[in-house]
Amino acid sequence: MAKKIIVAKKGMFSSGLPKLALQIVAALLTLYGIFWWRLNARVDKVFEQIQMMTTASHGRASFSLNGDIHIARISIDTPPGPQGVMHLRMGKLTFHTPGLWWLTKVAFTGLEGQDADRLGVTMTNFEFDAPQLAKENSPLGLYSGALFEADGCDSASWTRADLRQMGLPVQDSIATVDYRELGKDSAELTIGMGTPGAGRIDVRVGFDAVGIKSNPMAAVGATLTAAQITFHDEGFIAARNTWCAGKAKITPEQFVERHVQAVRANLAAGRLQADAPLEQVFRGYASKGGDLLIQMRPQAGFVLANFGRYRFEDLRQLLSPIVELNGKDPVLLALGPVTAPDPVENDAAGTTPQSTSVTATPAATTSNPAPVATTPGAAANAATTTVVTAPKMQESAPLVAYAGSQTGDVAATESNEYALLRQAVGQDVVIRTTNGTTRRGKLMHFSNAMLDLQLGPRDGGILLSIPRQSVRDVGVVVATAPPAPAEEGIPDAKKK
Questions:
Q1: What is d(CA 154, CA 240) in angstroms, rounded to the nearest whole number?
Q2: 147: DSSP letter
Q3: What pLDDT does residue 96 have?
Q4: How far apart are CA 69 and CA 50, in angstroms?
Q5: Residue 445, SS3 per DSSP
Q6: Secondary structure (3-state) at 357
Q7: Which sign does the torsion angle of CA 487, 489, 492, 496 carry?
Q8: Which of 16, 219, 315, 404 gets the highest tally of CB atoms within 10 A of its CB?
């Protein structure tokens, strides 16, 4: 009897399971068909709106089980403008969504009210053709992902076909944009572009915005938390140097020098110049390629919406950008306005004075330092300080006193040559910049390119990076006793 029951159950499964499977498959195919139809209808509607403004076409749309949407063979031609007609072609456009369930809800109910913690776009095998723009040097290579890809060569830019002629094993060019929420009040945006086998550029921006998870408009008041740009070379630099050197009938090493000079000239045309350490790092990248990293260290509270309101010099201090090549010691992104060298006054013997003795008296308590007037009587009670002019630092009135500590005491300073500040790490210093500002704080880090200064609580308590070329004069805070009363009747003397 038990055997018959087992046989009966076996027969039930053997006859019912395939039927059930077929029903499930049929239901899924029906759902897929409806979903595919809805998806293509929505894509068609979007392109109908685009066609009202310009010429556009596309192939069939499809989707993956992970929620990605694929649209094949996209072609868009912009209306004629100052730069002519621009043509955009893509082998495939992929939209990355949070998942298939999210995509199903959007397909049938629309985007209204649909929360997404991750969205992205990938353009595969893209081609961007702008005849007028192709005549101008671009700071970024569209397909190579290289920085200043064509400066110094007889071409302003290169196409995918050009990269193949250089001997590079180029694959499909890919451009990506990806947005991810890292928490209820923080998010990250990444952008990438390039061609495997040639090179790629990646940009990552992190920011905080209160309530961004529930209110996307909160991004308007977002504050920057991190930002970096990475140029990945995958063989383009060496191929470019050989290619351009061959056309100019020079050696690759000679082309690198020509390339660096062309970049320098293009920066000068924009009233910008790089300092020697930065140019040396770029020369290494232009010679041998590798990974070139530009990293920002934004000060707390830097609002992205205010980016365009800051002066270039202010941005350098607020973002503290550094440049690093292949993991070696970073240098400051010291890219600033072109300035003429300061005139140097010679003494009667024709030599340049390197130091001078001055006398310093405590100044009245103010929020900013001021030059200190001295008199014979005051000089008798003042500390004498030697001021050494640092190389490449502007001539200025010696920085001898600073007022404004929390206790109201006046702190005298002993001026130092810039290089000697290496021994002052951990001490309080005063820095007067070429912008006319004065900063006092603890010297946390010293390098030949910049200083990191920890400001006091009354100045926000932030870590401030100051480029060396922005330092006008410097001083280490030293303990000083209050001056003895001067004799009555002498100007500027203090009375008892």
A1: 11
A2: B
A3: 92
A4: 19
A5: strand
A6: strand
A7: positive
A8: 404
